[in-house]
Amino acid sequence: xxxxxxxxxxxxxxxxxxxxxxxxxxxxxxxxxxxxxxxxxxxxxxxxxxxxxxxxxxxxxxxxxxxxxxxxxxxxxxxxxxxxxxxxxxxxxxxxxxxxxxxxxxxxxxxxxxxxxxxxxxxxxxxxxxxxxxxxxxxxxxx
Length: 143
What we know:
Layout: H1 2-16, H2 20-44, H3 46-52, E1 54-62, E2 65-68, H4 70-80, E3 86-96, E4 102-114, E5 120-134, E6 137-142
Parallel strand pairs: 1-6
Antiparallel strand pairs: 1-2, 3-4, 4-5, 5-6
Helix pairs in contact: 2-3, 3-4
């Protein structure tokens, strides 16, 4: 039994990791997911976009709180998102694990909302998102 177990483990590890050239494909897929995510925020709002692109076990940090779980993230945005605000971002960097199942991005974002006088007020910042490949495509696990 021991003679069979080691080769099986080695085969599973070799199959689970993808060649380096597939890392470039995964990077492109993550960038496409980022763009689709941003587009959905602009078209359908933050609640729907953050829900759609969340992994079941995703977590987001907002202020001093961590909201964990896809449903909780959805509920958070349903209650707290400003429907008149917009959010735009651009990844400056993307990296993918050797096995191609995890990745992360970071870059700049701009959050725009109207103040009480009706003037646009912009907030600039840096985002960092951790992505996981799933049956539903690339989904964030941390934002």
